[in-house]
Amino acid sequence: MKRFFPAPLLSVSMFFLWLLLNVSVSPGNLVLAAALGIFAPLLLAPLRPQQAHIRRPRVIIRLLCRVGTDVVMSNLQVAKGVLRAGSRQPHSVFVHIPLDLRDAHGLAALSMITTVVPGTVWSELALDRSMLLLHVFDLKDEAAFIEHFKHAYERPLMEIFE
Amino acid sequence: MNESIELPFWLELATATLLLVGSLFALIGALGLVRLKDYFKRMHPPALATTLGTWCIALASILYFSALKQGPVLHAWLIPVLLSITVPVTTLLLARAALFRKRAAGEENIPAEISSGRDAGN
Amino acid sequence: MTGLLANAILASLFIFAIAMALTLIRLFRGPSAQDRVLALDYLYILAMLMMLVLGIRYASDTYFEGALLIALFGFVGSCALAKFLLRGEVIE
User: Fold this and answer.
1) Which of B93, B96, B103, B118 to mutate to test the interface with C (most CBs of C within 10 A)?
2) Model confidence over B72-107: pLDDT tens digits?
């Protein structure tokens, strides 16, 4: 089983990706999707330097909901900041955040989350992965922001990947 | 334009609202690109269009085509998924490029390098 | 399609056009190279969203493929440009 499906999650998502792309569930497309799901991970396996271990689906779903609501809220905040920029430019700063997360996949997920949420841009990561440089669009309280960041995103990612 | 198929009114209203909200967020993003004073501040507004803007437009497309074809047509959802993977990569590369160039030019208010390696980013 | 949706589509296309014009201002004004790359990056996202709206307007699936292609090529293009800036061969 492990030999034919080195990455079951990837296989499943390739399968659904093909069906979505073709907007059909005809037998021919089902066969093609299954072939893609089986052979693509096998062919690409040598390219993946290390296997990700993903646990705790409940935490993943909760994190996704959290990111979804945060995206909407910070969208409105950044929009407000832009519209008010004529009278008051937003207080943008770089923030140094000490990191506890070490897993490469977890860090990749963290960088995706911070960049997708408007208002924060992942700028630089220390070589030993202990410190993160983040640019924040409109910062009010640095300590509270770091606390929120670690609690909302880093903690769940550590639970999922480590 | 397909005139023969009549959509229910509430669906048309929902699609129209989503389209307008999505395009307004894209407009605010462009406005931010012009009005903000500093490069790093300007990195944030484009995220408005790539998140909520794209979500709204894709949702409108899904609603409209599902009603038109009398069944779920979800392929437009691939665009937000694709964007959520690709946009962080470009944003990150641009942020690192800007940091590197501003440091090299010796500008003020740019934090010092926190590591000596150049490919620590992910 | 009745008047409501058709008008909303026209309005949103118009708004996208204004957004593109604003982005072009940033593209031509600069001042630094990374500003121009950022504007170019935003321009392709706007073009892709416009393609999706056009797909609704003409009730055609083909525009979706176009939007997908724009997203992919725009990503590759912005990556290449950002990587070029990162190498530091063109310091102003």
Assistant:
1) B93
2) 888 888 899 899 889 999 998 888 888 888 888 777
Domain boundaries, chain C: 3-85
How many A×B Cβ pairs under 8 Å?
128
Annotate A143-157 with b (16+ C-beta within 10 A) or e (fewer).
Answer: eebeeebbeebbebb
- Hey, which bits of chain A come out as E strands? 93-98, 120-125, 131-136
Confirm or reject contact between B112 and chain C (CB < 8 A). no
HSE of C34 in the Cβ direction (CA atoms, 13 Å)? 27
C76 to chain B, any CB pair closer than 8 A? The answer is no
Assess contact for A54 and A60: CB atoms under 8 A.
yes
Helix (H/G/I), strand (E/B), else coil: A27: helix
pTM: 0.86
Q: Would you kindly state where each structural domain of chain A is located, as residue ranges?
A: 8-47, 57-161
- Of A71, A82, A104, nearest to B45 by CB-CB distance is A82
Chain B interface, best mutation among A50, A102, A116, by max B CB count within 10 A: A116
Q: How many CB atoms are closer than 10 A to CB C7?
A: 11
Q: Which ipTM was obtained for this model?
A: 0.85
Q: How far apart are the first and last CA of chain A?
A: 24
Q: Where do the DSSP E strands lie in A14-160?
A: 93-98, 120-125, 131-136
